[in-house]
Design goal:
heterodimer; A: 422 residues; Rossmann fold; 6-stranded parallel sheet; B: 242 residues; alpha+beta; 2 domains; 2 strands
Chain lengths: 422, 242
């Protein structure tokens, strides 16, 4: 069940909620249309699931449509995804043709209308080709790490990006030199969601029992899709190094995503690799396993996120919010969340990951301090209300070349700072 | 048994302004330029060409950025220290009083300090930040909105200060002074001209932003106004009993 905005006030204060209302008041009458590639699985769907009802509560007409495609189409978009992450992948002419055709089919099916089209990730990026017909403002939200894109894939994407009013990236390193506005908006977690709410110790224990995870030794957990870019094999290698000195267990937990056809192949490989070590628990969780993920993170002595590339890595923020010590790769948006030695430990190799995990296991007080500071860092920077505020700002400023937008209601006293452009 | 109405005390009404104070808020959206520097020479070259908004962003939003403890007060000092390991230069850059300089003067000051340092320490130009740790030049879009909060009296002003967001405090305290090249802030101006409170106005103008966090500044502002209200009440009581 969704929570109202007031449920967030204990974490961010009433003034933050008041500001959301002020912004939303300026968007009344706008129809905002979001499009992405999946309704469940992954951070994008998760954020939209919460963001849309909150917008409705604020009186903002936001609707969310999902692009549909065949498995060959999602293989193409996965190839594109990997190539934008820098892997050497070739987009064949047939693949490009299929990509554009599915885009047109979806445009015909969805019959979009609105004042602002908010397009997420590469899969529906070509929708912008219809902007002359559909009108409105257009924003492309890129959730992936495009700091070192494979040139061919970027060249294919660039003409589409240039047709948008603005592009939104999650971290400064992802921005490119582009003649369109590039906004920086980090993703967020929802502190009152089933995945992040407080759990009683009994609830955590119950989940572990259900999943048949013994609680005899410290637990190290990575929660992520089964994807080579999340380096699950690297996590197993690091765990085996740690296990030479510490008795501990490893949980690799992930769920399916309808837009990721590689998932089952990676899962098979991970299961094969793990089967000779009984202390490794590979869990393919069904959709809507938020409570289980919450419990697994809370039960962990260390949470790891050893990604090779990462759009942002929301599982890091989730773990930090639960005051868990986090060991994570210094890639993508992770360094924004983990300040090394303050809110977690950043690593760059299997050996580094093993050493950092061991450090946390060996010094529980230090680990607890990292976790506590990590929670405060997330509270200040990565909660849903900040994210929503920045989206509303992006909507409000879309298409404007100005650096300062002033709104007035004929105030009786107008501060001087409002009277001159910055 | 006779029932008594609950005792009520009329709220003291101090001086009422002719023009009330309207609380505004200024919300900020980060914008990337796509420009990045990995070395000090690159940083200097880009510093010469980036828009003033970048200088503003990197030197004056430290209070809004929730920087972690022990970080210097501007992004240039932070990067030079953390990414390049040039601590002496970092200290010099951290010593810049960005609040007191115009943006063109600030640009020249930063460039001058780096160039002087490179002359003293030529090997510093060989230092480079690893990938992902470069200096990314950012700027910001500002959206300025009126809040529903308006103060006609000192009481209402104190309540407003306690209720508004940190963005609002920042806007009235710093944006007015810095962006318009004024020597004061919105709060001070209103207290002085509308409320006839030059002493309180001066105390607020003297608040030191570098040694405090924004939540602490907000608390200090409200406390100063509450203290003045208490003084006024005490003075009135003294007058009554005298």
């Amino acid at each position: 069940m969704g929570h109202t905005l007031n449920a967030y006030a204990p974490f961010v204060g009433h003034s933050a909620i008041d500001e959301l209302r002020l912004l939303a008041d300026r968007l009344h009458g706008w129809a905002i249309r979001c499009v992405n590639a999946t309704r469940v699985g992954g951070g994008v769907a998760e954020i939209l699931t919460r963001m849309v009802p909150l917008c409705h509560e604020l009186g903002v007409d936001m609707r969310w449509d999902v692009l549909e495609g065949s498995e060959p189409f999602f293989r193409v978009t996965k190839t594109m995804h990997n190539a934008l992450h820098g892997q050497q992948e070739a987009l064949t002419p047939d693949a490009r043709e299929l990509f554009l055709r599915v885009s047109e089919e979806n445009l015909a099916r969805l019959q979009l209308e609105g004042d602002l089209f908010f397009i997420h990730d590469p899969q529906p990026i070509a929708f912008v080709q219809s902007r002359r017909k559909l009108g409105g403002k257009w924003i492309w939200r890129c959730h992936i790490d495009v700091s070192r894109p494979q040139q061919g894939a970027w060249d294919f994407m660039r003409p589409f990006i240039l047709q948008y009013d603005a592009a939104i990236f999650s971290a400064p390193a992802f921005a490119q030199v582009l003649p369109v506005r590039q906004l920086l908006i980090a993703p967020s977690i929802d502190p009152v969601s089933e995945k992040n709410r407080e759990l009683a110790p009994g609830e955590v224990a119950e989940v572990l029992r259900e999943l048949q995870i013994p609680t005899d030794w410290p637990i190290i957990t990575q929660v992520s899709r089964f994807d080579y870019l999340k380096d699950p094999i690297g996590v197993i290698d690091a765990f085996r190094l740690v296990r030479r000195s510490f008795k501990c267990r490893l949980i690799l937990a992930g769920g399916p995503a309808s837009d990721d056809p590689e998932g089952s192949e990676v899962l098979r490989r991970v299961q094969e690799e793990a089967k000779r070590t009984p202390e490794i628990h590979v869990l393919m969780l069904p959709p809507n396993s938020d409570r289980a993920i919450n419990a697994l993170q809370r039960a962990s002595s260390v949470v790891i996120q050893k990604s090779l590339r990462e759009g942002f890595g929301l599982t890091v923020a989730e773990a930090l919010w639960k005051s868990r010590p986090v060991v994570a790769s210094a890639v993508g948006g992770i360094p924004l969340q983990v300040k090394h030695g303050y809110s977690g430990l950043l690593v760059r190799s299997v050996e580094g990951a093993a050493r950092a995990i061991a450090e946390c296991l060996q010094q529980p007080e230090y680990a607890a301090k990292l976790g506590a500071q990590g929670r405060e860092h997330v509270r200040q920077n990565f909660l849903l209300t900040r994210h929503l505020r920045e989206y509303l700002l992006a909507f409000l400023t879309a298409g404007s070349p100005k650096d300062v937008l002033e709104f007035h209601d004929q105030p009786p006293h107008q501060p001087r700072a409002c009277t001159t452009a910055l | 048994m006779e029932e008594h109405a609950p005792l009520t005390f009329p709220r003291r009404v101090h001086r009422r302004a002719t023009l009330p104070f309207r609380f505004y808020t200024s919300l900020l959206l980060q914008e990337a330029t796509g420009l990045r520097a990995a070395t000090l020479p690159q940083l200097v070259r880009l510093l010469r060409e980036v828009p003033e908004g970048c200088l503003y962003y990197h030197t004056r939003y430290f209070l809004l950025q929730h920087h972690l403890a022990d970080e210097p007060m501007n992004d240039f000092a932070f990067w030079v220290t953390k990414a390049l390991g040039e601590r002496p230069l970092g200290e010099r850059l951290a010593g810049i009083d960005a609040m007191q300089l115009t943006l063109p003067a600030l640009r020249e000051r930063i460039i001058g300090l780096i160039e002087d340092y490179l002359r003293e320490q030529p090997t510093a130009q060989l230092r480079f930040a690893s990938e992902g740790e470069e200096f990314f030049f950012l700027t910001a879009i500002h959206v300025i909105l009126p809040t529903p909060l308006t103060a006609w009296t000192l009481d209402e002003f104190a309540e407003g200060l306690e209720r508004v967001s940190l963005h609002s405090i920042y806007f009235h305290l710093f944006d007015a002074r810095l962006k318009l090249g004024c020597s004061t802030n919105d709060f001070t101006l209103w207290l002085d001209t509308e409320m006839g409170e030059p002493g309180l106005a001066k105390r607020i103008a003297e608040l030191e932003p570098y040694t405090s966090t924004l939540p602490a500044l907000q608390a200090s502002l409200a406390a100063l106004v509450r203290q003045r209200l208490a003084e006024m009440t005490a003075n009135e009581d003294d007058g009554t009993h005298a």
